[in-house]
Specification:
mainly alpha
């Protein structure tokens, strides 16, 4: 099979199969390539904008609702498959971020509880130590009084 006698934009020989005139379809119809490219560009063009109502601070429940609305939009034709694919990637990322944020919050709460418990224990230990010292002083003073009262030589 013969190849096209035309040249590419880079100046190389065109390797497409030639039609009866010795040129490929696009070299024989140069405006057709531009036209077909424009059709593809319009089809893959700007996002038309589907309102999925994405909340500012998203929870896992909010994410589930967004995904459900996106699936309905995809099935109704409002959302194109390419856009839905990009949205799916963003939703996956958001899910991982929500999970990580929840774990961070849980760890912070546990660390605060631990710090509070340690402070309470230190306060109890200090109060207990102070109470023990007072008890020992009282006991020593009572013992001295008992010894003094029992000793006939003192006094």
């Amino acid at each position: 099979m013969a190849t096209c006698q035309g040249k590419t934009n880079a100046g190389e020989d065109c390797r497409a199969p030639a039609s009866s005139g010795g040129l490929c379809y696009f070299h024989a119809n140069p405006n057709q390539a531009k036209f077909l490219g424009q059709i593809g560009g319009r089809r893959n063009g700007k996002f038309r904008g589907v309102n999925l109502e994405v909340p500012e601070h998203m929870t896992a429940t909010d994410l589930s609702q967004v995904i459900t609305r996106a699936m309905r939009s995809l099935l109704s034709g409002e959302l194109q498959a390419r856009e839905a694919g990009a949205l799916a990637q963003l939703c996956n990322l958001q899910h991982r971020l929500i999970t990580t944020a929840d774990l961070e919050n849980h760890i912070n709460r546990l660390e605060q509880q631990k710090t509070q418990q340690e402070q309470e224990k230190e306060a109890l230990d200090a109060a207990s130590t102070s109470s023990n010292i007072n008890d020992m002083e009282t006991a020593a003073s009572v013992n001295l009084e008992q010894v003094a009262a029992a000793d006939p030589m003192s006094g």
